[in-house]
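Subject: design request, 169 residues
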């Protein structure tokens, strides 16, 4: 009995520390209430998976205060996609439809019809792609992808239609 009580107290104390650490980054919510404290350490298979996900998805969290280097999964997803597919996305954006444009809508977390997303990007083509459409230097593909991502996220934030239907951050 004493051993069980000691084990429960140990779990509570160590679990409280883990919950506190997870709150340092708002992108990683802690499980609700006392059940989250008790259940997380006990479920080894899902707990280890969750720990791996938390440690890889919280890069850049600094005491819960967002900064320029704060981890932004949406931005990273879009930038990585555009690094490999920028030319196809540009072509399909000019047409207002295509598989790469559909994939971009999904990566951006938009819950609208792909045709609507394609039309909005087509109408705002110059704003999203800017003067980069004339640059063909392969060395600058990462820079072009970063600039295009920034412009796309800016369009999504400024457009009431997209801001409401696409995830932010």
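Subject: RE: design request

Done. Sequence follows.
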């Amino acid at each position: 009995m004493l051993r069980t009580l000691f084990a429960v107290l140990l779990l509570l104390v160590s679990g409280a520390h883990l919950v506190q650490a997870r709150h340092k980054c708002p992108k990683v919510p802690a499980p609700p209430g006392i059940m989250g404290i008790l259940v997380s350490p006990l479920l080894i298979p899902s707990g280890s998976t969750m720990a791996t996900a938390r440690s890889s998805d919280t890069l850049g969290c600094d005491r819960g205060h967002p900064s320029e280097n704060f981890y932004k999964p949406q931005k990273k997803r879009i930038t990585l996609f555009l690094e490999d597919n920028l030319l196809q996305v540009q072509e399909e954006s000019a047409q207002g439809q295509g598989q790469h444009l559909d994939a971009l809508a999904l990566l951006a977390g938009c819950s609208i019809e792909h045709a609507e997303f394609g039309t909005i990007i087509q109408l705002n083509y110059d704003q999203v792609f800017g003067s980069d459409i004339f640059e063909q230097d392969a060395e600058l593909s990462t820079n072009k992808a970063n600039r295009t991502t920034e412009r796309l996220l800016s369009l999504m934030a400024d457009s009431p239609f997209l801001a409401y239907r696409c995830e932010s951050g």
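The chain has two domains: 2-57, 73-165.
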